[in-house]
Amino acid sequence: MNKFKVSLGNWIYGLPALLVFLAVTLVGVYFIKAHQQEYRAAERQYTEQALASLRVQLESVIVHSASRVEGLLAFIRLNPNLSNQAFDDFASQLIDDHPMIQNIAAAPDLTVRYMYPLAGNEAIVGMNYLNIPAQAAAAQEAKTARALVLAGPVNLLQGGVGFIGRFPVFIQEEVEGEEASRERFWGLVSSVMPVDRVYEVAGLEQTDLKLAIRGQNALGEEGAVFYGDANIFNQQPVTLNVYLPYGSWQLAAIPQQGWTTRAPNQVEYMVIFLVLALLLSAPALYIGWLLLHRRQQAAMLEQVASQAEAANRAKSEFLANMSHEIRTPMNGILGMSELGLQETDPVKMRHQLERVNQSGRLLLGIINDILDFSKIEADKLELDPHPFKLDQLREELTSLLKDIAKSKNLSFSVNCQYLSICQSSSQCQKGSQCQQNCTAFLFGDLQRLRQILTNLISNAIKFTEDGEVSITLTLNDAWLECAVKDTGIGMTPEQQTRLFNAFTQADTSITRKHGGTGLGLVISERLVRLMGGDDIQIQSQLGVGSTFSFRVPLRQCSAEEQAQLLMQQQEKISEYQTLKGRLLLVEDNEINQEVAGTMLAQLGLVYELAENGKVAVEKIKNQAFDLVLMDIQMPVMDGYQATRAIREFNKSIPIIALTAAAMIEDKNKALEAGMNDHMAKPMNPSDLYRLLSRLLSVTQKEAQPVLLILCPDKQQLKELAQSAQMDYQVKVAAKFEQAQKLIDQGEIDLVWLAGDWAEQTEGLVKQLTQNQIKFEHR
Fold first, then answer.
1. How many CB atoms lie within 10 A of CB 107?
2. Strand, helix or coil at 143?
3. C-alpha gyration radius of the chain
4. If phi over 0 gives left and psi between -120 and 50 gives alpha, with beta otherwise, what is residue 585?
5. Sign (positive/negative) of CA torsion 485, 489, 494, 499?
6. Where are the alpha helices (H) located in 343-445, listed in sequence order?
7. How confident is the model at residue 270 (pLDDT cuts 50, 70, 90)?
8. Residue 684 to residues 221, 357, 494, 516, 687: CA-CA distances in angstroms?
9. Cross-strand bridge partners of residue 242
10. 583, 524 in Cβ contact below 8 A?
11. Cβ-based neighbour number of residue 638 at 10 Å
């Protein structure tokens, strides 16, 4: 029975991996749906644009053809009793100049008397429109409307199908005994346009869309379908109205193959997210397996049954805590990214992206803790010593943690003092507090030292509700002594004995209130030992506060090391500096290609892609590159193999390892393979710039002109801002008063006015003119 209970509880250890897998899967489903919606929107936008072009062409053909006959109307008003020869002479010029018109007829009192050309149209001559059922209503409507009425398509008496444009003609007549002339209805002038010719000239036969037109006899949506498949109107088409001189048609379109039901690359995206879910859940699954394995080992040792039971309980608490710690930033990533996809306000969207970035870095910190602990347990963690200044450590700790302490109204200070050495006796005395210009050059692993102190200071701030947190860094000969003091909750002696056990905190209720993985102090103490120091010492009193202290041996830098450090610190990033060079980016992952490529483009660099090491070797043989960013784990040929192959024929080209393997031993392995440096994923743009700027030339980037976009429609405002951001520094305003303030502040080079601002536009234009600011209407 007990064995069954143990087996039943084993699934809990896979819960974090399951949660990570489900979370990434849900993100993938959401992304694929968003991608599909975006593709459908693009497809519909393309159809709208193509259909709008066809509508313009169709309206142009109809209106232009109809307007050709207006000259004949004027001629008839001047010569109401014109001869057939005069009519033919005038009409022949119209038709010869405009082949779209098949024939022209004139019907005084609605009876066709004139026709050009007569050949083939004899059947209509002498007919009264009122006696032709298919044309009577349209003829009477043209007379009543006193405007051009387009009928059709209709079957013509003389044969064929066409559109008939009828123009009513009214003339002025002098009446005996009356001073004013009187208007009289003379008749109709009609022109026939063959439907096939209209469709061809308007481009309806050459488009890649499926089209349908309804509104026979210019009746709009109420008219019959006379072109295309009527079923198109039942397939959620894009529709536009074709406006005629009197009435309209409705034009509908769908893609030739119908609307897309599945976006391109959908299957590939599903596979990518599935693989990503498996990769991200693997570390959590490994931790679960590790915890389960330890629990099973403890159960087998009867002589330590009580200790094993306590350890298992601590591991279970840690597992539940890890589930919470992973899901908390994951919730921030999912929630804020979902809001960002729906947001149109650039300011809010930037805030949401910053939150996604913060949550991602928090999740990365958790993973780093797990990896550090795993490396320490396997005795594979190595140090990476470099020259640094003590002031640098003090300033970094202050900038990282001062604002966090300030948010809790805590007093925060970092002080350093010297007990036996000082760079300048005129600036500080033995044992005195270090001044800003009093520095010591030391040699050690600054990153790991900062990690230890950050863990201790973060805990001090976390468990202190009021009072102060102070840090003292004391340089005593070859030892750096560090002490972190707080006025927080303190601990009992019994709690202090459990503090440096893996996966535990002094009190389990602390985890629920303050969070944390329970690995920070364990990792910190192991790092202190690895650096050659003793255990971390604790002085604490419940309700009064705690002091954590340790010391590590650090030697002073040589003169050459000091010069190297000073040279590195002079390298600064300027907002308007870009790099110059042509790079080869060797990366097999499409998402990483996009991330790295975008960062390189932002730095002004030109790059080319290679999807594996073999392709990279061939490209370097045949092309010239200034630098290579080399991924490590790739199919066909990995980064180490590719680097060794390149070094056989090119010893000088800089090669930088670009890999998720971030440990110092990974860096050493890359250097041994012939690479020049190492960049860990996820990449930081500033770190990438500093690394590349040492190997590539820097050019000064010109400042972009400042553009102010004024538009009340937020969606249009967003689209205009996105289209202009490559060429301008963009400022936006959705309200008139906001735009006035920005203009009054100066530094505006150009203004785009979009939307209707009524009377306010005149005042704004006057203000822009006075300030000599150019403006455009959009």
1. 24
2. helix
3. 41
4. beta
5. negative
6. 346-377, 390-407
7. confident
8. 58, 11, 42, 24, 5
9. 249
10. no
11. 18
Average pLDDT on 300-309 reads 64
3-state secondary structure of 13: helix
CA distances from 258 to 21, 208, 241, 607 (A): 36, 11, 21, 39
Residues in the chain: 778
Residue in 552, 571, 535, 420 with CA at minimum distance from that of residue 481: 552
477 and 526 in contact (C-beta within 8 Å)?
Answer: no
Sequence-distant (6+) residues with CB within 8 A of 651 are: none
Rounded (5°) CA angle 301-303-304: 70
DSSP for 679-718, please give it. EESSPPHHHHHHHHHTTSEEEEPPPPPEEEEE-S-HHHHH
* Contact call for residues 111 and 127 (beta carbons, < 8 A): yes
Give the whole-angstrom CA distance, residue 555 versus residue 533: 13
What contacts 682, CB < 8 A, 6 or more positions away?
360, 364
For the segment 128-156, the average pLDDT, to the nearest whole number, is 82
pLDDT surpassing 80 at residue 758? no
pLDDT band at 51 (very low <50, low <70, confident <90, very high): confident
Cβ of 456: how many Cβ atoms within 10 Å?
24
What's the angle, vertex CA 118, arms to CA 142 and CA 94, rounded to 5? 65
Amino acid at 533: G
Say how far apart CA 472 and CA 464 lie, in whole Å.
18
What is the CA angle 401-404-406, rounded to 5?
Answer: 110
When the pLDDT of each residue in the chain is averaged and rounded to a whole number, the result is 78
Beta strands in 615-686 (DSSP E): 627-631, 655-659, 677-680
Distance of alpha carbon 497 from alpha carbon 503, whole angstroms: 14
Q: How far is CA 706 from the centre of its chain?
A: 23
Long-range pairs for 198-207: beta carbons < 8 A, 24 or more residues apart: 198/58, 198/61, 198/62, 198/65, 198/100, 198/163, 199/227, 201/57, 201/61, 201/100, 202/54, 202/57, 202/58, 202/60, 202/61, 203/53, 203/54, 203/57, 204/54, 204/58, 207/50, 207/54, 207/253
The DSSP code for 172 is E
Closest of 310, 293, 332, 284 to residue 508, by C-alpha: 310
pLDDT band at 674 (very low <50, low <70, confident <90, very high): very high
pLDDT in tens, 22-44: 887 888 788 778 878 888 888 88
Q: Which residue has the tokens 């990995």?
A: 638
Tokens of 700: 């000064």
Q: Which long-range contacts (CB under 8 A, 24 or more apart) does 576-579 make?
A: 576/700, 576/701, 576/702, 576/703, 577/698, 577/699, 577/700, 577/701, 578/603, 578/604, 578/605, 578/698, 578/699, 578/701, 579/603, 579/604, 579/605, 579/689, 579/692, 579/693, 579/696, 579/697, 579/698, 579/699
User: What is the pLDDT averaged over residues 148-157?
Assistant: 80
Write the DSSP symbol of residue 653: S
pLDDT value of residue 88? 87
Query: 């059709």: which residue's tokens?
Result: 152
Helix axes 15-67, 305-342, angle to 10 degrees: 10
Helices (H), 146-231: 195-201
Cα distances (angstroms) measured from residue 232 to each of 109, 179, 241, 366, 614: 42, 60, 15, 55, 52
Q: Which two tokens stand for residue 199?
A: 């469709």
pLDDT of the residue at 405: 85
Q: How far apart are CA 106 and CA 76, in angstroms?
A: 9
Which is higher by pLDDT, 73 or 435? 73
In this structure, the strands spanning 225-228 and 209-214 are: antiparallel
* pLDDT tens, position by position, 212-260: 999 888 888 888 998 888 899 998 999 999 888 778 889 999 998 888 8
pLDDT at 610: 93
> Are 728 and 751 within 8 A, CB to CB?
no
Which amino acid is present at 538?
I
Q: What angle do CA 570, 575, 579 make, to 5 degrees?
A: 75
